[in-house]
Amino acid sequence: MKLPKIYKDKDTDLKLIKEKNIGIIGFGNQGRAQGLNLLGSGVDVKVGLREGSNSWQVAVDSGLKCEAIQDLVSNCDFISLLIPDQVMGEVYSEFIEPHLTRGQTLLFSHGYNIHYKLIQPPEFVNVIMVAPSGAGTELRKQFKISKGIPGLIAVHQDYSGNSFELALSYSKAIGLTRMGVFESTFKEETETDLFGEQAVLTGGIPKLIQSAYKVLLEAGYNPITAWFVCYYELKTIVDMFHSKGFEFMNNAISDTAEYGGITRGNRIIDEHVQNEMRITLKEIQNEQFHNEWMLESENGYPALNKLREEEKQIPIEEISKQLLKELFENK
Ligand SMILES: NC(=O)c1ccc[n+]([C@@H]2O[C@H](COP(=O)([O-])OP(=O)(O)OC[C@H]3O[C@@H](n4cnc5c(N)ncnc54)[C@H](OP(=O)(O)O)[C@@H]3O)[C@@H](O)[C@H]2O)c1
Q1: Share in percent of the chain as helix, strand, coil (round to 5)
Q2: CA dihedral 153, 88, 33, 6 (to 10 degrees)
């Protein structure tokens, strides 16, 4: 496969973004990281927060100016929405939309609200996406050591005629083009991001670990031995294939591990699991997951709160906390 263009630092410059007044709404995972990285790149950036926000003083102590959200929207050319996706639509209707003016840019770090039409911006603004492929903590950590993480960019609405260039310039300012950004669409980013979380990152992998641990315990094995093999060793394996590929991993492990892994792995992650993945993807594409999640949010998260309590009771949680403390904290 011929790789599409991956944009690097040399393909853009900071000039475009430095000419703008940037307003970041929210100072959480992404807001803090993007705000501080923009500041570090010499960009004129402020933070917009709700009334009485606990983050106000935290942002000020980090060197950022703060304003009420509606004032920020009136005063900035470029507005980056970095609050939880499930509340973004409401905040947009009340504090952002009434204050928008011609030629401003709305920037999203995830396509959710545009793709599912929770936010439908007027035609006189640019609507772009700069989605870091990783958590805010990682984005900030890498930036501080002159590195970055990759990301996806997209243009939904190009009013000014240079929205793509603006997205690239912003990507450089937060450190993404140090590694590389790739052009996508709001639809593709939203659907693949949700699927990746559910099937692999925050769904598949944790559940695979918990299930394997449970099976070993049911068979009478020592919880500590079971934890080492099902939980702790995962990082070594991920580190091996993350930067060098599965072939490198297979060369680095024993032949026994390679043979057992491929033959039993194919049996465990079988057609049934793949069919469940197809159903999961369908639910994202046909908006079933989105409707369920919005209802959950409107009702005050009854299912999520119950699931959080249940997750705390999962046997591997207790042993993980004890062992992680013992291994990493007790010298
Ligand atoms: N988590 C990640 O690292 C990550 C990675 C890639 C993309 N993204 C995307 O980045 C965006 C932000 O996600 P996030 O995880 O950074 O969000 P987050 O940490 O949950 O956002 C917290 C911030 O949002 C503010 N906030 C929450 N509810 C609000 C409301 N009703 N009105 C006004 N402000 C409110 C909070 O205000 P207070 O300070 O007042 O509490 C806080 O400053 C999302 O689109 C997400 O999909 C996130």
Answers
A1: 60, 15, 25
A2: -10
Ligand 1 centroid to Cα of residue 88, in Å, is: 9
pLDDT at 1: 86
272 catalytic, yes or no?
no
- Choose which residue among 25, 29, 36 to substitute to test ligand 1 binding: the one with the highest number of ligand atoms within 8 A of its C-beta: 29
Burial class (CB in 10 A: 0-12, 13-18, 19+), 48: buried
In the chain, pLDDT over 70 holds for what percent of residues?
Answer: 100
Of 129 and 2, the one with more pLDDT? 129
Distance of CA 145 to the CA centre of its chain: 20
- Give the global pTM: 0.94
Backbone angles phi, psi at 274, to 5 degrees: -65, -35
84 CA from centroid of ligand 1 (Å): 4
Asked whether the CA dihedral 241, 247, 253, 256 is positive or negative, the reply is: positive
In whole angstroms, give the CA distance from residue 113 to residue 120.
9
Sheet containing strand 44-49, edge to edge, reads 6-7, 181-183, 151-157, 126-132, 105-108, 78-81, 21-25, 44-49, 65-68
Summarize pLDDT for 65-105 with one digit per residue, the tens: 999 999 999 999 999 999 999 999 999 999 999 999 999 99
Please count the CA atoms within 13 angstroms of the CA of 94 that sit on its side-chain side.
8
What are the residue boundaries of the structural domains of the chain, listed by start? 6-184, 196-329
For residues 46 and 97, give the distance between their C-alpha atoms in angstroms, rounded to a whole number. 19
Report which residue type is found at 287: E
Contact, 64 vs 37, CB < 8 A? no
The per-residue pLDDT for range 173-229, each reduced to its tens digit, is: 999 999 999 999 999 999 999 999 999 999 999 999 999 999 999 999 999 999 999
Fold of the domain built from segment(s) 6-184: Rossmann fold (3.40.50)
3-state secondary structure of 292: helix
